[in-house]
Write a structure and sequence with these properties.
five-stranded mixed β-sheet; 43% helix; elongated; two-stranded antiparallel sheet; alpha/beta
Length: 304
């Protein structure tokens, strides 16, 4: 227990909440958790507010319900439909759940901006849940970008909801643009990144350049030769670990061998957005196997 002398004002307290989504195209959304925390702590200190605790959620969508509100989430049709579409069913925010459970300990929750607290879906109950929880405890949201938000005031609550929905729409538009750009690249056989991660290749000196990893390439060719000579995946995996163990950081697994035997990239091709084979421009002259060798292995997988 803290005692104050006569005339001394208790220092106001706050929680900090930091959230970062994964795979986002929004530069603001990708702001690191460490940067958010540092900025929020500096901001709270400038306001004379004591930080009680900091909750950090990495790779987490702002649309998810907090832990402790699973039953309410199950009754939210807009939310459950979105979870099914985005394959996020069963995911909940532990950090936000802790904040809501402990709101009575603080006067403020500090965040870089209001979207770090939540990004409601249009028509979801999540906005009302957050608003009522803050109102019930008399807690305000304090943000670096938007200032103080009092959910007990109609205007603040409305602006916050509308801002979150507008930001959500902007993200959706950005995602659709990114998907369209990726589709265009796939359809003309161009990939700007990722091929250097493919077993058998490595990053070259120029940007987006890939070169053949000669040692790994030998293992790839051997895997196709054995598979097309009726060896099964288990037997090939054992053989590769006996003869090429030094070319891979981890022992070969059946999963890796199966993936190797299904990638058309080794023959210099990729699948376009319609599932059709097109020439991979970045792999011209860097094919590890002939197309018919890959096709033979592919047909064996398809026949299964």
């Amino acid at each position: 227990m803290v005692y104050y002398t006569k005339g001394q004002t208790p220092m106001e307290k706050c929680f900090i909440i930091c959230r970062q989504s994964s795979g986002t195209t929004d530069p603001e959304e990708s702001l690191s958790l460490e940067v958010q925390e540092a900025e929020c702590r500096k901001f709270a200190s400038s306001k004379g507010i004591d930080v009680v605790d900091c909750f950090k959620e990495g790779g987490t969508s702002g649309r998810l319900y907090p832990v402790g509100y699973e039953q309410m989430a199950s009754q939210d049709w807009v939310y459950t439909h979105w979870c099914e579409e985005t394959k996020k069913s069963g995911q909940y925010r532990a950090g936000l759940g802790s904040v809501l459970q402990r709101l009575s300990e603080v006067t403020y929750v500090v965040a870089y901006d209001s979207t770090r607290l939540f990004r409601p879906l249009n028509g979801s109950f999540l906005s009302a849940l957050i608003s009522q929880a803050f109102q019930a405890k008399g807690v305000k949201l304090l943000t670096l970008k938007e200032g103080i938000i009092d959910f007990g005031k109609f205007q603040d609550a409305l602006v916050t909801t509308l801002t979150s929905q507008i930001n959500s729409e902007q993200l959706s538009i950005q995602r659709e643009k990114a998907k369209a750009a990726l589709k265009k690249l796939k359809d003309n056989g161009t990939y700007k990144s990722g091929l250097d991660k493919l077993f058998g290749y490595k990053k070259g000196n120029a940007k987006y350049e890939i070169v053949i990893d000669e040692k790994q390439a030998e293992a790839v060719k051997a895997a196709y030769r054995l598979f097309n000579n009726a060896w099964n995946i288990t037997k090939i995996t054992i053989w590769l670990n006996q003869h090429y163990r030094d070319v891979n950081k981890q022992p070969f697994s059946k999963w890796l061998v199966s993936r190797i035997l299904q990638y058309p990239q080794y023959a210099g091709y990729v699948f376009d957005s319609n599932g059709e084979l097109v020439k991979a421009k970045q792999l011209e002259g860097k094919e590890l196997i002939p197309l018919d060798t890959w096709m033979t292995a592919w047909r064996k997988f398809e026949s299964r």
